[in-house]
Each structure stands twice: as structure tokens, then as C-alpha cells.
Input
Amino acid sequence: MTNEARRKARLLSGVMLMTQLRLNDELSYCTVDGHLIFLDIQNDRYFRLAECLESALVTYLNGGDGPESSIRRLIDRKILIDGSGNSDHALSCFPKTPTRSAMEEAAHTERTSISVVLDTLAIVCSTQLQLKTRGLKKTLDGLLALRSQRTSRPSTSRHGQSLVLEAAAAFRSARLYVPINTCCLLDSIAMVRFLAKRELHAALVFGIAADPFSAHCWVQHGALVLNDALGHALTHTPIRVI
Output
């Protein structure tokens, strides 16, 4: 690289540092045991930063000036990106801390019909195929598109919650007949799709626990967990909500 090229690179880097930066939309994070843990949906992975980069990022996101060298490294790794454009961040606000579990409450459920079993089979299989061929991000993009087309915001009425409880119970019952191993990611995405097809809104919550590290996800409607035990969900810190 010539001296002129180096000068231009330094100038460009300085200009970029002066612009408003923001966290990459494909990343989300939470604090566990005093450290940031990130979820990267584009690459379907969790990761942590070195302490110097973590400190610089926290300082910058809180409105301070982190070390320039560390900020440059965060830009190079696409953790911080140019914030001058419009963000397509499609995250929902974090839901209420769950206080109930649909799986732990006695509820009258009708006998599982063949049509519900077939619908559940089709949704689970298609979701599994999407995750394998399209990856996590595109699968979640499709989920968001379906839910936005078919549902409004979560209903807070007693009748609306009753409909969600009944539909979630129908999915869990029908899922027993689907010859595919259960998996929290697969089944949670499939349940949200199942509910959306019935014009019922629910959130997909990604959570993590540390020591030892554990990643998990579940479906939530208000403060009600639909496909997990309450205690298990509470052991995980939400990191991203779809």
C-alpha cells in the first residue's frame, strides 16, 4: 500500500468514527454475570467479546468515547455499523417477565383432530426445511412477515388469551404425532407460525444462561409461557425477542 493509500485509509477511518454508529441489526445482547453475550442471527451463533472491546462498546453505547483503536476493531468486525441510514431492526420490545406457564395449568382440550395434526406436521416439516436450507435469519424474516400479515398485537382480553391457550394446547397435543425430534428452536418457531395462521399473536423469545452456558427459546403471550415450564424459562435471560 502506498503512502497516499494509507493516508486515505486513515482519513476514511477517522470520518467513520465521527459518524453516528449503532449496533448491527443482526446482533443482540444481554448481560449475564457482568459480561455481554451476543446472539448473531445472521451466522446463527453466540459469542463474547474480549474485555477491551466489551468495555469500549459499553462506553460507546452509553454515549461515551471509547478508545479509537477498539472502536475501529468493532467497526471492522461489523459489530458497530453506520447509523446514518434507516434501521430495519425488527425486534419487539421485551415481553413481561413470565409469571405463568400454559403447560402447568389444567385446561380442557378437545380431542386432537386429523386436520390439526396434518397442519402441525406440515408446519414443523416446513420450518425444519427452512432452518436447514435458508438459515436462521431468513427463517425469522419469513416468520415476521407471516405474523405481521395475519395478526395484530397480542390480545389482552380474557377471551383472546383463552383462544391462544386453546390453540397452543392443540399444537402441543398434535406435535406428539409428528415423527421429528423435538427442539426448542424448531418447535417454538413452528408454534408461532401455527398461532399466526389462526390470527393469534405470540412472541418468540431467545434466552441464555451461563455457568454452564445454555441457549434456549420459547413462545410467550404476555406473561404466559406457552411451550415451556415457568421455572425453566426463568433460568434464562432474554437476549432477543421476535
The helical segments are 3-18, 51-61, 68-76, 114-133, 135-150, 158-175, 184-197, 230-234. The first strand starts at residue 21 and ends at 23. The mean pLDDT is 87.
